[in-house]
Amino acid sequence: MSEANVKRMFVTGRMALERIESISQLIEIELSDLFQLYQDTKQKTVQLTTEQERQLMDDTQLLLVAVCVRNHLTYKEILQHYAISPTDLIQRLAHLDRLKIIDLLPNNRIKLRIAENFSWIPHGPVERFYE
Question: Using an 8 Å Cβ cutoff, are 119 and 47 in contact?
C-alpha cells in the first residue's frame, strides 16, 4: 500500500480495526498502547500550577527553554539561537519533562504536553515577571 493511501486513511478516519491492528503489529506496538497514546494526546494541560510556574521563575534558562518549546522550536533551533550549552539544554528539557510540560523523546525530540490554547496563570508568577 502506498504512503498516500495510508495518509488518506488516517485523514478520513475510515479505517477498519483489522487494518489498525496490522499497522500496530508492523510498528511493534500493542493496540492498547496505541489507544493510550491517543488518549494522552487528548489530555493536554491548559494551565500550569502555581508551583510549576514558580519553578520556571527560579531558573531563567528554564523559563527561556519553556517559552521556546511552547513556540515549537526544536532542540537544534534552541541551540542555534540562544547561548545555551547542549548539556544545559538537556538538563532544562529533562526538568520540563518532570514538570509534565513536555515529553523528552529519543534523539532530543520534544513533544508538547500543553494545549494550543495554553495560557499562563492570570496574575501568576510568569505574568508578573513579564509585566
Answer: yes
